[in-house]
């Protein structure tokens, strides 16, 4: 590459800068709206770092129709939700009657991360943890809407089922090991923090297994030092 040649920025970085300009804000102004530092906005626009899903969701809200769809898609919101919302918007504009839509629920996205290989955040009380955003989900995805909490996933231990960086919804009302055999669960240990693994039973022993650990080298025994917090009922990943 010749000296002085400027690399093209990815589309997401360009869209963030365009959003800021449409809102007639400098980087500090957009940072205040998103509750981040001005340096974070600068790094996004220079494509040094890509925003997390919660910030994309907030930017989509600020952008409004039609630019919101780009930001919400980058956040990894399910395509079915985006299409349903788009149909509703088009019907409203044309004066057509929109068919009744399925009930939706609003699920808190917590400022927490669960590990799959390495330790996650050391916060066992998810019901009291602060939320950074609300995610919309079909009402029939879970029978216990009030018990749902979303958090981020770190590591490739549950790949390809649940990729690194995914957002997973956990039903905190399902925490009895006897009823969760072979389910993906969220557990907490004072030394490991929050861990997302599959719960398996081998004889009388209950263990937490990573999807990628075929040999069982990193299996964790679910003893009395572990607290089973809930079952993962759905998850979503941002497109690469």
Written overview of the protein:
The protein is α+β, with helices and mostly antiparallel strands and 240 residues long. The chain has two domains: 11-94, lambda repressor-like DNA-binding domains (434 Repressor (Amino-terminal Domain)); 104-236, Umud Fragment, subunit A. It is 26% helix and 28% strand. The chain has six helices and nine strands. It has a nine-stranded mixed β-sheet with strand order 2-1-3-4-9-5-6-7-8, with helices on one face. A hairpin with a 2-residue loop joins strand 6 and strand 7. The mean pLDDT is 85.
Would you kindly provide a brief summary of this structure?
The protein is of the alpha+beta class.
Using only C-alpha atoms, the radius of gyration works out to 20 Å
Structural class assignment: alpha+beta
Number of domains: 2
Strand content: 25-35%
CA-based shape: elongated
Indicate the CATH architecture of the largest domain.
Answer: Ribbon
The SSE order reads HHHHHHEEEEEEEEE
Which bin fits the share of residues in helices? 25-40%
The description of the largest β-sheet is:
9 strands, mixed
CATH topology of the largest domain, anyone? Umud Fragment, subunit A
Lateral strand order in the biggest sheet: 2-1-3-4-9-5-6-7-8
CATH class wording of the largest domain: Mainly Beta
Which blocks of ≥5 consecutive residues have pLDDT under 50? none
Please identify which CATH superfamily of the largest domain we are dealing with: Umud Fragment, subunit A
Number of beta-strand segments: 9
Per DSSP, the total helix count is 6
Cα separation of the termini:
25 Å
What is the average per-residue confidence, as pLDDT, rounded to a whole number?
85
